Amino acid sequence: MATVSLRFSVRALEADAGLSGTFLAPHSGPRLVGKLRSSRVPADFQRHEVGPRGEVVHLAALGLGSGSGPGAGGSSASWVSADEQMRNARSHPLRSAKRSEAVASKEPWTATVYARGQRPDAARRVLASALQLPRTAVLGRGALHTPGISVQLVTFPRGLPTVLQQAQHDGPLVSGLLTGQDPLVAVGASTLLAPEVDAVGSTVQDTTSRRQRRGTGPENWQCQGHSYSVVLRNLSPWQCEAGIVEDGVARFATDGFINAFELGDFGLAEVRRYEVGAALWAGKWDLAAKLLLVMNQADTNGEGCHSSPASAAAAAFRSGDLARGVELLPEDGTAEGLRALALQLLLRRPALEALQRAVPKPVWARHLSAVSRLAWSRAAAIRLRQMPHRPMPGDLIWDESAGEARALKADEVDMRRLADVVLPLPRPGEVVPECPGRLQMEATLDKLTSGQADPEVAAFPINVGSLMPRFRHLVCVPSDVSWDIVEAADGPVVDCDLTKLIGDEIGTVVRTPEADDTKATNRRARAGRRSAASGRSGGGSGVSASLRGPALRARFTLPRGSSAEAALRELLHAEASEFCEDLGRRDELF
Asked: Quick one: how far is CA 587 from the chain centroid?
């Protein structure tokens, strides 16, 4: 194996993903320029799950005792108070103990999880660790990979063991807050709010009734999309006065954006996810195992020390020293899968067997799906660059009545929009459906796999037929779009759920520049008009100075699977590396 390390480049990844420089709107005249600085002010980027009827999930109370489904109080048996346990034990000691143990271990327990920080996607791992449960014991739909705030429902399918319930009465989770790590995690009950918005930060909250909430149990809940609240800072005053902001948002709300994937879906380490996925796709098991072990090849700093916690181990793996690599892996529990894989190889297991034993199913899925995403992205780029930005005969559209995609007929073109066009997402062992982008997809797959035939699908420990949806819309049009312009200070201009719950105490919980002053701004702004929301005051340091000035507050809803990063990319007519602060490499660990 070569010993020369790679160097990660965001710009190179954007170019390789295929859509770099491709937008729906033509590049004519001045464009909206702003910065997403959620790495410093997490409240600038907030994501809430949205239910089938448009209900938005919000954290309504803190503490495990308030664990619940969407405003429903969760499973009736998911939490038993100390007083109730004592009463039951006195009346029917044996029956009570058996019933409590069975219920606590089998009844699903659902709660709302709020995550805030650089890695909101790690919230389920943090929660599982705090409850002394395996990571797989906490289930949720998707995760936010951008610095910011995420609010979602999670479920423990087998519930919380009785011993944990009893212990938590004296433990840290009684408060519902897990601090001291990234991300900060809050857990508790939820409420569903109907999204009637007259301005960002000024939601007309139509809370569902108690009776309605009882009928919306966790077993009936399905996340259908996400509601986003985004703040773009550092607008220039002339953009606001010249109507550039208004025109840009109006075009975004009407025409939508290219339904691209997030850059993080392709991997932000030196070895990309689709490179590992291509080796798995082609059945090159030895190569796939080696690539997984050496993904993190961050350069050493000026003193010869590795800049990434996993890069020293990757260097040892790259040189063929598996035993040394195992010793150098991080000990914080984030690299147990890599450790297991290396140990399997040390035991001289065949590479396929080692992969099947050591690599979790979600890791197989994210690497294989990265291949599908890359093929889709490159085909989408060709479609948009070489053909008009309108439906064309032969394009695939989704037929709701038939429940499948079909070719668009010439006499239907005038009745369709570009948002109706779909492109297939290829899967291992399946033929790419006939469509304008088929040849490009097949060329991408052949290049990645070197033309090698797919292995038997039985070799994969996951159902590749359900790896991803069969088709993805070329363009996504957001709903519930509202916006205004505010004069921002150093801190947040949109309050999050945790701030609304604990108020001034957030300054003792969150140690960020935004916590200098936690007084919430209650000024309301009419949608589309300039308002004077002050944000939070702070010091005059150079770090915080770039947070001040005109800022765009926007709120919109996207279907599940669509990316807010892609939405902002179109709105700003710029690549993510141009507007996402601190977008860079990230270790690939499992």
From this structure: 16
Confidence (pTM)? 0.83
Q: How far apart are the first and last CA of the chain?
A: 22
Paired tokens of 356: 């099947």
Q: Which contiguous run of DSSP H or E holds residue 369?
A: helix 361-386
pLDDT 10s digits, 381-399: 999 999 999 999 999 998 8
At 166, is the pLDDT very low, low, confident or very high (cuts 50, 70, 90)?
low
Q: Return phi, psi of residue 176, to 5°.
A: 80, 10
pLDDT classification of 6: cutoffs 50, 70, 90:
low
- Give the DSSP letter of residue 6: P
> DSSP states of 233-298 as a string?
B---HHHHHTTHHHHHHHHHHHH-EE-PPPGGGG-SSSS-HHHHHHHHHTT-HHHHHHHHHT---P
Checking 99-105 for CB contacts under 8 A at 24+ apart, the result is: 100/162, 101/162, 103/77, 103/159, 104/77, 104/78, 104/80, 104/159, 104/160, 104/161, 104/162, 104/165, 105/158, 105/159, 105/161, 105/162
Spatial neighbors of 406 by CB under 8 A, at least 6 apart, are 396, 397, 399
